[in-house]
Design a protein that fits this description.
There is one protein chain. About 45% of the residues lie in helices and about 15% in strands. By secondary structure, the protein is α+β, with helices and mostly antiparallel strands. It folds into 2 domains: about 50 residues, no CATH class; about 40 residues, no CATH class. A two-stranded antiparallel sheet has the order 1-2. It is elongated, with a radius of gyration of 19 Å.
Length: about 90
């Protein structure tokens, strides 16, 4: 927006009160553009992916809204239920 190159950004984790610097290069910019396009496509389709439920979730400020553990458990239950009636070969 300002016409200036931005070489470094920062991510602040509210729970740990830590700030992490991130180098911004062409590879990261391309990855961000791809991610934005994928998010827009998911929103347009009306289907969001399941939460990751990994180590990133511990410090996320949205964990109470997202609830990755219960949703992961539900997905696992559905997977197991689907396998109940699969014939063995």
């Amino acid at each position: 927006m300002t016409g200036r190159d931005v070489a470094v950004g920062a991510i602040y984790h509210a729970t740990s009160h830590r700030r992490r610097e991130v180098a911004i290069d062409d590879g990261l910019r391309a990855q961000v553009e791809e991610t934005v396009a994928a998010i827009r496509q998911a929103l347009a389709a009306g289907q969001l992916p399941a939460p990751a439920n990994d180590e990133r979730c511990r410090e996320c400020s949205l964990i109470d809204l997202c609830q990755p553990a219960p949703l992961a458990a539900l997905a696992r239950q559905q997977e197991l239920a689907a396998q109940l009636f699969v014939a063995d070969d």
